[in-house]
Amino acid sequence: MKNLLLVIALALAFSLVLTSCVTDSPSNIADENAARPTEGNIQRQEATQAQNETTKAENKTTQTQNKTTQAQYTGMHLPAWAESYDLSDGEVYTSYFHASWQRYSNIDSLAAAAERYIARVEVLGERTEMLNISLGEWPSNDIYTIHQLRVLEVFKGNVRPGEMIEVAQAGGQLGNLLLINPDFVTRAVGDELIVFLSGVDPKEYSEFPVARFTFVVNPWQTFYRADPVDGDTFKSLHPDNDLVLTRAELEQIAERSRTE
């Protein structure tokens, strides 16, 4: 009887040891560790959540920009090349400006073409706007860069030193519409230039928006550097213009303007 009890006791002890080994087996421990959140998992979850918030904010910003862009053109007559575009999609639409210009072989003919002003000016700044250059019933709109100039010295035209004039040059970006003018002449704020400018008579065409602005005679021969090369000669701002301007020619232009 004692031997039977001893055998039963040993069997129970062996069973408890076996159960303990199974419970603490490597596979069970691995399962428990996998279920427990680790520092790396928490960081990845936080990074994903932050990325989702950033994406939401970017989408909201894009929607706001699209609404702003669409509102920017409300009430405008768009250029013919842009009328079929969906301006709310945020894409930049591009067109190229092309025009036929007359190039002048001497300063006298260039001065005659400058119907509005010939003057020494200082560049103050610029802006871009949709400008209707039509003198008729139907609008002819396009994107223009408007350069603000302060008059320093007058050789021709009804303007005085200290007054402001504005020069409209085709080209520039307005919202998501981009007009590229291959002949666009860039000027910097503070530059002093001698300019030859055309345009309509502001009194005769006062009811038209275009009368507020002057225009380039052509892209190459409109702007000259105001600082003379050798004390008497002025060179063009455009590298493709080899027509040289002299102080004597400017004085002759001013004398003819006073007697006209």
Strand content: 25-35%
Which structural category fits the helices and strands? alpha+beta
Mean of residue pLDDT? 79
Going across the biggest sheet, name each strand in turn: 2-3-4-8-7
For the largest beta-sheet, the strand count, sense and barrel status come to: 5 strands, mixed, barrel
List the domain count as a whole number: 2
What is the topological layout?
Blueprint: H1 2-23, H2 26-35, H3 39-72, E1 93-96, H4 107-113, E2 117-132, E3 141-156, E4 164-170, E5 172-174, E6 177-180, E7 192-198, E8 214-216, E9 223-225, E10 233-234, E11 245-246, H5 247-259
Parallel strand pairs: 1-6, 4-8
Antiparallel strand pairs: 2-3, 2-7, 3-4, 5-6, 7-8, 7-9, 10-11
Feature tags:
260 residues; alpha+beta; five-stranded mixed barrel; three-stranded mixed sheet; elongated
Task: Report on this structure.
33% of the residues lie in helices and 26% in strands. The chain is of the alpha+beta class. The protein folds into 2 domains: 66 residues; 164 residues. The strands form 3 sheets. Strands 2-3-4-8-7 form a 5-stranded mixed barrel. A 3-stranded mixed beta sheet has the order 1-6-5, with no helix packed on it. Strand 2 and strand 3 form a beta hairpin. The protein is elongated, with a radius of gyration of 38 Å. About 12% of the residues have low confidence.
Summarize the structure.
With 260 residues, this protein is an alpha+beta fold.
